[in-house]
Amino acid sequence: MHIFFSGIGGGGVGPLALIAKQAGYDVSGSDSQGSVNIDQIKQQGIDYYIGQTAEAIAAHHAKHPIDWFVFSSGITRTNPNHPEIVFAKEHNIPFSLRDELLNKIIADQKLKLIGIAGTHGKSTTTAMTMWLFHELGIPIGHSVGAKVPFAPMGQLQPGSEFFVYECDEFDNNFLAFSPYLSVITGVAWDHHEIFPTRESYQKAYRQFIGQSQHTLMWKEDAAHIELPESPALTLLDKSDKGIAEITLPGEFNRQDAWLSVLSVHRVTKTPMADLVAIIARFPGLKQRMELIAPNLYSNYAHTPEKITGGMLTALELAKDQDVIVIYEPLTNRRQHYIRDQYKTSFKGAKKLYWVPSYLAREDPNLAVLTPAELLQSVDEPADKQAAELDDTLLATIKKHLTAGDMVVAMGASGGGSLDEWLRNHFGGK
Questions:
Q1: What global pTM score does this model have?
Q2: Quick one: pLDDT at residue 369?
Q3: Which of 246, 276, 354, 387 is the most buried (most CB within 10 A)?
């Protein structure tokens, strides 16, 4: 069967394309632009093209008939009449979101799903869980929405019993799954275009947990979503002494690591001490306090909670250095909901430079909030200013680095982002 993936460079569809190929399917795809994920697709010899037009998919289909069209939900949210979707409909090609195919692969391979969900921390926790299995020499299937140095973003190893999956709540993706074990890293209202009220977001998490055979999560999150007690629920305390045994930098990192350790211990019975020793060697993942040049870090952070976590890690690493933050909000839409929540998120920074929001899946009816407008909601640090991704900011960053400051870029990823701009200028991969 030939499966075509539209948006094959995306953090959800890209890993699935790799998994489908390893599961024995004939795989190809397309994307609107190149990316780091596309590089992995290319390395696996998967046929793809850049430029999602009706003409391109028609030529592709004529050469290699498509049996199943799988697409990212972002495709239709950006353009309900996306030319590739229209082509699939007109040519009676079965089409679906990624969850249908992944569920089929999980069922066909008789895998037990470890689903890792949460508003923040799910990529890190997924990668940490993968790392533990990797170092134990236990084969698994996995899908993670970030680049890791020890494995591809999607993989299905022969002999796997478990599948570790970063379950994204966007477009209710995670509600398509019934995990053997679910792990909830944290819950704070997000994706407001999908969940218009806080209650609708909490309800989705309650449903996901209800579909799981067992769930590990923090007590405070269970209380936040008003989750009733259940034998299928293990509630964890962030004051647990075991967390202090983990030596990774950053309080949030240590909490994510503890979730991973407990998860792998539960399903493999590996002694906790062994898992704690392994997690201490975790090599990190792309854009999670990633060092891309001396004293220059990139950190994917788009909610106040994630920014706070990034700041705590940065301050631990900095020691006696001043921490300078460059922040790029992810989507203008999100800013209309969270603009009043920033207040002390950047606490500890010496100076904050705020650049324009990274725009994606936007509501055209919402006014684009400027850096100057958004900065009005920031109480700390006192020294803050609006900026642009231009030569002036580049010179400013170099000046801070020369002075020995730690510069932390927080924001989006992808084409045209602050992260990509910095890598282009400072040579990060």
A1: 0.88
A2: 97
A3: 354
